[in-house]
Design a protein that fits this description.
- The chain has 6 helices and 21 strands.
- It has about 375 residues and is mainly beta.
C-alpha cells in the first residue's frame, strides 16, 4: 500500500496528514473435519501528521509564554473495566519518540506504534458497546476551534480508493486550552459530534463517539496534544518532559494525565479478543463491528478465531475446539518471528462431521466450545 497525502482545510487552517498502511494475505488450508487453520499479522493503519501547525494557534501571547506550565488531561474515552480490572480498550499506538525516519520507539522505548506517529490511539474492543456508542470526552476545559462530523464510517475498509479522496482524519473535534495547549480528537463516528465551533466545554463533557471514519482499519480515537511555544510541538501525555527521547522506566511525575492510575492508561500486557464465525475470518471484516457476519449454522464450517494485540516474539497463541465433553476436535498454534501490533489466528471444524448440520449458532455452541492460551515459547 502506498503512502497517501491529503489536506484537510479548516477555515484558514490547513491540516496535513499522511497515511501509513500495509498489505498482505494469510495462509490457509482447505476446510476439513480435522481442522481449518490460518494466521495473519498486520500493522494497523492510523494517523500520522507531518504539518507542525493546524492554523489555530492562540492570538494571546501570554498563552504561548506560559506553555511550560502544564495542565492535566483526563482519559478522553469512556473505557470501562470488568470485575477483574481489565479495561475494554487498549492503547494500540503511542507517540513516536525516535528521532529518525526509519524506526519507532514509544515513551518507554517499546515498539507499540509506528514511525512518525504523533498521538495516542485508544482502540475499543467491545463491539456491542461500540455499536451502542462509546463516548469521547473533552480531556480538559477549552473552546471548540474546528469540527467535522459528516465523514462515513468504515469506508476505508470497504473502498480504499474512495476513502483516499476524503478526509484522512475522518470526523474530528479540535479544542483550544490554556497555556498554549490544543487537543485533536479524530476518527469520530459519523453524526456523533455534539459541539460547534466557539462552544466552551468542560473536562469530561461528551464531544462525540468513537468511530471508524477516515483512514483507519479499526475503531479507535486518535488523541493528540499540541503545545505552542516558539514552534508547535506534539506532546506525549505519557512523557511531558524529554518529549523527544524514551526512557525504559519513566517517572509518572512527568506525565500529563489527571488519573495516571486508570487501568486504561497502563502499559498493558498482550490482549486477545475471540469469537465464532461461519466463514474464514478476515481482519478487515472483524475490525468493523457494523459489518454483518456469517453466523454458525449458516455454512458447514465453524471457525473459532482469536485476535491478539502486541504479541511478542517470546509468545505463542494456542487455539483449541472441543466438544461438550472436553474432547479435542481441532487445534492450531500461532507464533511470529517479530513483534506484531495485531495478529489473527483461527481454527475450525466441519459441522457435518459432528452431526450438527441444520443447527443454529446457540445450539451449536451447546455442543462445542473454543479456548485459547497465550503462553511463553
Amino acid at each position: 500500500m502506498s503512502n497517501s497525502l491529503r489536506k484537510i482545510v479548516f477555515g484558514v487552517g490547513i491540516l496535513a496528514l499522511v497515511l501509513w498502511g500495509f498489505s498482505g494475505e494469510g495462509t490457509s488450508t482447505d476446510p476439513s473435519p480435522q481442522g481449518y487453520t490460518a494466521e495473519k499479522a498486520n500493522t494497523p493503519v492510523s494517523l500520522m501528521r507531518t504539518s507542525p501547525d493546524n492554523g489555530i494557534a492562540s492570538d494571546n501571547p501570554e498563552e504561548t509564554n506560559q506553555s511550560n506550565s502544564p495542565i492535566l488531561f483526563q482519559l478522553p474515552v469512556d473505557c470501562r473495566t470488568d470485575e477483574g480490572g481489565t479495561p475494554d480498550c487498549l492503547i494500540q499506538n503511542y507517540k513516536d519518540h525516535d528521532t529518525t525516519r526509519t524506526s519507532f520507539k514509544d515513551f518507554s522505548c517499546g515498539p507499540r506504534g509506528y514511525d512518525g506517529h504523533t498521538g495516542t490511539d485508544f482502540r475499543v474492543l467491545d463491539d456491542k458497546r461500540y455499536r451502542d456508542g462509546i463516548a469521547v470526552f473533552a480531556a480538559a476545559d477549552g473552546r471548540v476551534s474546528r469540527i467535522e462530523g459528516r465523514e462515513p464510517d468504515g469506508l476505508y475498509l470497504e473502498n480504499q480508493p474512495a476513502a483516499e479522496r476524503r478526509n484522512p482524519a475522518g470526523n474530528v473535534v479540535l479544542l483550544q486550552h490554556d497555556f498554549g495547549y490544543r487537543t485533536l480528537y479524530a476518527h469520530l463516528k459519523k453524526g456523533s459530534v455534539t459541539v460547534e465551533p466557539g462552544d466552551y466545554v468542560k473536562a469530561g463533557d461528551v464531544i462525540g463517539f468513537v468511530g471508524l471514519s477516515g483512514f483507519t482499519e479499526f475503531p479507535h480515537l486518535h488523541f493528540e496534544i499540541r503545545r505552542k511555544t516558539a514552534r508547535t510541538e506534539f506532546v506525549d501525555p505519557f512523557s511531558f518532559q524529554g518529549n523527544e527521547t524514551c526512557v525504559e522506566e519513566r517517572s509518572k511525575k512527568q506525565r500529563l494525565w489527571s488519573d495516571d492510575n486508570n487501568p486504561s492508561l497502563q502499559y498493558q500486557d498482550t490482549r486477545t479478543k475471540s469469537g465464532w464465525l461461519g466463514e474464514k475470518p478476515k481482519s478487515r471484516e472483524l475490525n468493523n463491528p457494523d459489518k454483518p457476519k456469517v453466523l454458525l449454522g449458516q455454512s458447514d464450517i465453524a471457525i473459532y478465531w482469536v485476535q491478539s494485540f502486541h504479541q511478542t516474539t517470546e509468545q505463542e497463541l494456542l487455539l483449541k475446539i472441543k466438544d461438550s465433553s472436553g474432547n479435542l476436535l481441532s487445534k492450531h498454534q500461532c507464533a511470529f518471528e517479530s513483534f506484531k501490533a495485531q495478529t489473527l489466528c483461527f481454527v475450525g471444524v466441519r459441522l457435518s462431521s459432528l452431526g450438527l448440520t441444520g443447527r443454529n449458532q446457540d445450539e451449536i455452541l451447546q455442543k462445542i466450545y473454543g479456548e485459547h492460551e497465550l503462553r511463553s515459547k
